[in-house]
Write a structure and sequence with these properties.
alpha+beta; 2 domains; three-stranded antiparallel beta sheet; 6 strands; 30% helix; 19% strand; elongated
Length: 162
């Protein structure tokens, strides 16, 4: 990688740490099994002033999203699905969604949820707060599908608004 680009990346990382956006970060680029770039900035432990290093272990969240997106885009590339398709084309229980308005009223959503909305995380579906920890995924899925079908699951907001 060109030195100018590496220098700029280091500046961006240093600025993010200086602004308090992150306590520490690192960047590694591997190509054909060979390390091309390694940059680090900030602290793994701010209080102990321990710098971030390549041996640090980081928690990664929401890692199923890029895997799901990759699988979906393979289907799009193969012409099997279109992101403009309504979810109800594949899951009929998603027809006729309802939405909760700002004043708490339940009304018909402006349109159906599209695959694109799911991919953009703008479907209006929400989770957390009301879900019990440890519930079986299949049971929750069936509840949502039947709830949408029966108008019992309410979207948090209109699609494509998040």
């Amino acid at each position: 990688m060109e030195q100018v680009i590496k220098k700029r990346l280091q500046q961006v990382m240093d600025a993010s740490v200086a602004k308090g956006e992150t306590p520490g970060c690192l960047l590694m680029v591997i190509k054909d099994g060979e390390e091309q770039v390694y940059l680090e900035s900030g602290y793994a432990d701010i209080e102990a002033k321990k710098p971030v290093s390549r041996d640090n272990i980081f928690r990664l969240y929401s890692m199923s999203k890029p895997i799901t997106a990759t699988a979906m885009m393979i289907l799009v590339e193969r012409g099997i699905v279109d992101l403009a398709d309504p979810v109800s084309k594949y899951l009929p229980g998603f027809r006729n969604p309802v939405v909760c308005t700002a004043d708490g009223k339940i009304e018909k959503a402006e349109r159906e949820i599209l695959l694109e909305d799911i991919m953009n995380m703008t479907s209006g579906l929400t989770y957390g707060g009301t879900d019990e920890t440890g519930r079986q995924t299949d049971a929750l899925f069936q509840e949502v599908i039947h709830g949408l079908k029966d108008g019992k699951v309410t979207l948090r907001y209109q699609q494509n608004v998040a």
